[in-house]
Write a structure and sequence with these properties.
Layout (H helix, E strand, L loop, with lengths): L6 H4 L11 H21 L6 H8 L3 H8 L2 H22 L10 H18 L1 H6 L2 H6 L1 H17 L5 H9 L4 H9 L5 H16 L7
Length: 207
């Protein structure tokens, strides 16, 4: 088997944006610092374009021009929230980061992603489901799971199988299971491990 590509080459990392003018970059940072401060003090629900503008000392129009909408602002905050976690996946200690067997990394990924989704649930909802499923945050997780399935030696439609593995730890599914179906995190993770083993077992290559 050929040597698999490294995580750094495969994964679409958040934060890799087009270079901005220095004043635009400073404005963006000031607005995001203001928005994050509101999230820390008041929760995501307390973040309004008016409040962010006032705290950053700019007009509300500046916030709209920079982010387009409240959802766009939440998406930028989600970018920051995801970037630290993604850095751990790409270069952090094993088993989440490189260095552990791919099946072990897959399990560590599921546990870490579940926790990340629950901690950021309000922010993820505010950034919209459409962004979650089609934006860089979802692209990163789907690509990473495909990468690990390929390393394990799983055959078939890896994109579809990766989506199947991500579905049970989607934030909307998690909240339904935890809040309305009286499931525990341990039960969800046990079910996820069973699903992963069923996907991996047929045609799995031995190391």
């Amino acid at each position: 088997m050929s040597e698999p590509m490294s995580d750094q080459r495969v994964l679409p990392v958040l934060g890799q944006v087009t270079r901005e003018r220095s004043d635009a970059a400073r404005n963006r940072e000031a607005l995001l610092v203001a928005a994050q401060g509101l999230v820390d003090r008041c929760g995501v629900e307390g973040v309004t374009m008016d409040a962010v503008a006032e705290l950053a000392g700019v007009g509300k129009g500046t916030v709209f021009r920079r982010f387009g909408s409240r959802s766009g602002l939440m998406a930028a905050l989600l970018d920051l929230f995801e970037s630290e976690w993604q850095a751990q996946v790409i270069g952090g200690p094993p088993p989440l980061g490189p260095g552990a067997p791919p099946r072990e990394r897959l399990s560590a990924f599921a546990r870490s992603r579940l926790d990340q989704n629950l901690r950021g649930a309000a922010l993820i909802r505010a950034a919209s489901t459409a962004l979650l499923r089609h934006g860089p945050a979802y692209s990163f997780t789907e690509t990473h799971v495909r990468y690990l399935l390929e390393q394990i030696g799983v055959a078939g439609d890896l994109g579809f199988l990766a989506t199947a593995l991500l579905a049970p730890i989607d934030v909307l599914v998690l909240e339904r299971q935890l809040d309305h179906d009286d499931m525990t995190v341990d039960r969800i993770l046990a079910g996820w491990e069973d699903l992963a083993d069923r996907i991996i077992a047929p045609g799995r290559e031995q190391p």
